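Could you please consider the sequence and fold following this short note?
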Amino acid sequence: MYESAELPSALQPLLHDSALQPLLHDVVMCVAAPAFVASPRDGQLRGLRAEGFYGHDRRLLHTACLLIDGREPEPIGVQPLGPDRVRFTSVHRYQGDPSDDPTLIVERVRVAGQGEFIQLRNVGTVTRRLRLELALATDLADIADVKRGRRTPTVPCTASGDGGGLRWQTPAGRAEVRTVGGAGAPEVTDGPEGGTFAWPGIVLRPGEDWHTHVGVTGGAVPTPPGHPGAPRSAAPWAEPRVAGDPRLVALVRRGLDDLGALRLADPERGTRTAGGTEDQFIAAGCPWYLTLFGRDSIWSARMMLPLGTDLARGTLWALARRQGTAHDVFREEAPGRILHELRPADAEHGHGLRLPSRYYGSVDATPLFVSLLVDAWHWGLPAEEVDALLPYAERAMEWVLEVCAGDEDGFLRYYPRQGGLRHQSWKDSEDAVRDATGRRIEPPLALCEVQGYAYQAATGLAELLSARGRHDAAVRLRTWADALRKHFADTFWVSARRGPAPRYVAIAVGRGLEPVSGPASNMGQLLSTGILDADGCRDVAAWLAAPELNSGWGLRSRSAGLPGFNPLSYHNGSVWTHDTAIAIQGLSAAGRHEEAYALTAGLLDAASHFEYRMPELYGGDSRTQGAPAPLAYPAACRPQGWSAASGVALLGALLGLRPNARERTLRVTPMVRELSPTAPLIRTVESIRLAGRSITVRTDHPTDGITVEGLPEGWRHVAS
């Protein structure tokens, strides 16, 4: 092993703790949840920023630097081979060679959850004798420390008992690296700063190759009981065949690949006996949120419902088993409340934010849980599953009603604890809520979209209860929802001095029913909830289509015409993929096809610039300002769950799919083809799943326009 002073400059550690969140825009990610690898583009891990091998929120390796005869090979390319693996190619050149052509090719295929496969190829005409070394080190840092930019000390390593590998151990984590097959066993050196694998006598004749597999394993200590892990079975959704715009086809395909890599399975089965299938859900995003997140996992499952109900079922059960049962101030737990996030251990996130391993601090996950069950019911979730989950949904709805009853204004409002998340909906950054002057608005707050979620949950659950013959309970919920809708209409609308419509929906109201002024994207998520009337949908649609909010690449989170707008702010000007997709779904449901098409076209154009792996968010600069491509948000998760699912959400919106389990109808209202200047964005989708059956929807029938094939028995298609 090299002494610290002897290391090449690329291996020298940072000299100070910058305490800044690492940037990710040029990081190569490969994911197989709960594992991932973050690499620079040359493949050399040097212990900098967020790079490393990870498992269960623990960095297993931060240094894996390859040297040949004491020199780093020269990188020439990086090639993703799938969501879970990537190949880094470099060359090693020799002075005095008669040709400038490289003759020794170095390939490193890095695989999340497995390690890396190293291959040397001699493509020249001269026998090469060389020494290969792999310098290895780690800090076993928690992902929360990595995210906040906190530099943690290197952990000493020791040779494994059989001398064939290296081990690192702390009270919180462990890691082991050893070679698996391939070339002969390496010489192993351990030490306080890390260790080295060395192969000192490699001989490669012309045309020969040499290879080894370096396995990386480890994780948290101890492993939390019942913590989600890698799934053992196939992805719980159908694989659709889409004919239409190539951008849409590519977005759906890449999104499904990434969702497959973001899957986690719940090992807890509780008292369930049906089916025997493991319950899978989608982790929120890589690298920061590779775990169960109530809001994010629910939205991913909702977007994926056109491809089957199994993902929704798994998500619902994973959250139902962890539904709040008691009052706990630190966890912000309450009976009926749905989990916000699940981690292997409590963590310090910086700036005074300390979150427990099981944290309930979100105001939106609970009503969204109810709506996911209702949506899954309409898409054909088996009756026995619906009935088994219904008590959990009712307890969740009781939490909503209780919070609203205890609020002085009757809204679903959040009251965060000291040291917890300050804002508790999807815009949860410290400055997530600003008014029209740019002034930060502090909680307690009643956010507009959260009231929409509550209304949709109440009306949807009322419909489900009525279908189960529980009419009194249904009437109670409808009466409450009607009152909320009226109260919302009287409170949240703000008159606009200028703009595309005379009014807009306030992002929130504070105490005393003071609305937070300034147009923001939040109102786009109201369109599909039913809390707005037709005139309200028209006014919101006008704002979403206006240049202040529509950047040309997607929907800005805050109007560009307001002080405090920043195109690279997390929630005050950037474009969020899922937020745009939800707005498109709502516009489609409201019949506002022209506005929906404009946002769809921008989102698809943006996807082409991100190689169809849509990030969590990206820059909100205007397309009309000559920007040739959308700007990356440098710390965004990519891949990210609800961003990856947005392609399927677009499929549903473009086709206008709305199933009704009670009436056994599938309404199909495609966006009119005349909106496209060239060809329709979508013509045919095969393998849509409805009530367990695979159906095909075609929008290009020469006479009827729409055909639906393969409907379940007793179901009928309704066109409008």
User: Anything to note?
Assistant: Residues 1-18 have pLDDT under 50 and may be disordered. Residues 383-406 form the longest helix (24 residues). The first strand starts at residue 28 and ends at 32.
